[in-house]
Amino acid sequence: RRHRARGRATVTREHAVRRLIALLALAAAVGGCGGGSGPDRDAVPSDLEIRYRWNSGVSNVGPDYAAYAVSLEASGAGTIHFTVGHPSADQDLWDERFAVGAADLLDLYSLLHDAGVFSESWAAREPVPGSGGGSSLVVIADEVTYRVPVDLADRDHSASIAPVYESVRSLVPREIWEGFETRREDHIDADDH
């Protein structure tokens, strides 16, 4: 009887150890999936969407008001929507499409991690009446939405996000930017006459 009882205790103990190991492995796997630190930085998530917006400012109500919104998808598809002229006046609106290479998209995705987009809290400062324009960012990755508002309260955050904004702008082909500047100038000239 002792032998059987001891045998059962050993089996029970072994079973408990196996269960503990399995639970620890599961906890490590779940913890490694970004619990709080954002998505995996080594691979672009299949649902990645990056939306960067810029405008010349609410105080700029004349024909030289301008805004654009760049949208990038995990597939590499890119779109930029331009607005020239203030919403209360005659506007010129148009879209351009472009493609981003997989390596460039992965570089931008790594830059989002480096800037802390997935791990920092991005607070906006109190709005200033008549303030100038600015940039903002929305990123969707692994079904979570991350927002970087205009007018960041923390100067360190402003400095860390600037390379991200520059990188997004650099992914739009130069010919598209030249077309934007030409149409913007034409819109301002047309308003002057």
Please outline what is shown here:
The protein is α+β, with helices and mostly antiparallel strands. Helix content is 41%, strand content 25%. The protein has helices at 2-31, 102-115, 155-171, 174-192; strands spanning 49-57, 66-73, 77-84, 92-99, 132-141, 144-148.
Provide the residue-averaged pLDDT: 80
| Coarse shape | elongated
| Strand order, sheet with most strands | 4-3-2-1-5-6
Helix content: 40-55%
| Individual helix count | 4
C-alpha end-to-end distance:
107 Å
> Radius of gyration, rounded?
25 Å
Q: How much of the polypeptide forms β-strand, as a percent range?
A: 15-25%
Secondary-structure map:
Elements: H1 2-31, E1 49-57, E2 66-73, E3 77-84, E4 92-99, H2 102-115, E5 132-141, E6 144-148, H3 155-171, H4 174-192
Helix pairs in contact: 2-3
Protein architecture, described:
By secondary structure, the chain is of the alpha+beta class. 41% of the residues lie in helices and 25% in strands. It has 4 helices and 6 strands; from the N terminus they run H-E-E-E-E-H-E-E-H-H. It has helices at residues 2-31, 102-115, 155-171, 174-192; strands spanning 49-57, 66-73, 77-84, 92-99, 132-141, 144-148. Strand 5 and strand 6 form a beta hairpin. The protein is elongated, with a radius of gyration of 25 Å. Mean pLDDT is 80; it is low at 1-10 and 26-35.
